Fold this sequence. Notes:
The protein is α/β, with parallel strands linked by helices and 420 residues long. Helix content is 37%, strand content 14%.
Amino acid sequence: MPTAPSPRKSMLARLLVPGGVGALALIASTLIACVPAAPGPSAVSTAPAATAVAKPVPTAAPARPTEAPKPAAKPTEAPAAKPAAKESPAARPAFDEKAVADFYKGKTVRIIVGAAAGGGFDVYSRAIARYLGRYIPGNPTVIVENMPGAGSIVAANHLYRAAPKDGTAIAVLAGPIVLNQVFGSAGLEFDMAKFNYLNNPTPETRVLVVTKRAGVAKFEDLLGPNSKQLVIGAIPSNATEHAPILLRNLLDANLKIVSGYDGTSKIRQAMDGGEVDGYVTTWESVKISNRQEIESGDWVILVEFEDQPLANLPAGIPRIPTIPDIAKNEEQRLLLTFGVTYPNRLAKVYVLPPETPTDRLAAVEAAFRSTMKDKEFLADAEKAQLDIAPVFGEQIRKMILEMLSMPPNIKARLQELIKL
């Protein structure tokens, strides 16, 4: 069982939970990742260009009393996450707007999406791209390019090693790749601690979704000697892979995991063709891409990787089991929380390379802030059913740094289970 965190309040606890909760230092101190070799420009699959143009952190109520946990001989419950505290304007560096405008005028800014076209990463990025350019001084054109591979590790490697460092290349990465860095995975050419973090448009909640024809109506059907096996599609080094591996290796769920897909859109195609029975995705994504299948019952949600049930399910959908419902003990609950829930609260993080000039970094982050408040953007997001509850720069960095300092005993057990 992992040892307890020190009584010192963590940065993340002070950030997310009013008054600070010591146990969140343990929770956030749990994860981070690494990446494969960076591709050259020819590896980029260019998606159609868009003209210059995205939840408070999900509240995770513990299954047990919500009294703030105290340092103990072993980890206590994960505290409920609260909306991130807002940074004061003074905390953000000022910049010379004219100098920044002179640089960006007539230029093109690329948003490199570390996933295939058609998925949640792509949809959010195209929505943001339509508005972001109007708020960057000089009003550059903003386009979206897809660079799928290894759960966004390919895009992270590319941004860190090969992409321009002048503020014209932004990448959107999957937060769960921090686990790869924590575990020292091969092929990583970046350091998550050194990226410049801009924005996460909304934290996410992971769910296990399967087709009705798979013949499994509830999570309990996957357990025990008479259980039915499900074939689950997954993206390598991604929560779509980590989550079902934990269900299989930690809870003995009867899952066969087929990894190697480069995006959730490809997994959905495999589900339609009967190649796989389901996948782990985000509720925020699946309610957009396949709401009709969910509402009709053709797709069934078996489990939710949070402490508190989803509150915005379509009418007629029964309550979905959560981590406290499926975990047999506290250790299992903590490992599911550390391995799936908290990395996905980072969700889609928009980053600039480490060497980006300070004034352009400040200008682009300010442009993301303005985009997230733009009334037309928010109206478009609502029509597209995109949840918007942004977290910005330094707030994201604090979560990343906490994850990178995961206690060794928790890291060892989690790595053993996920086998990264």
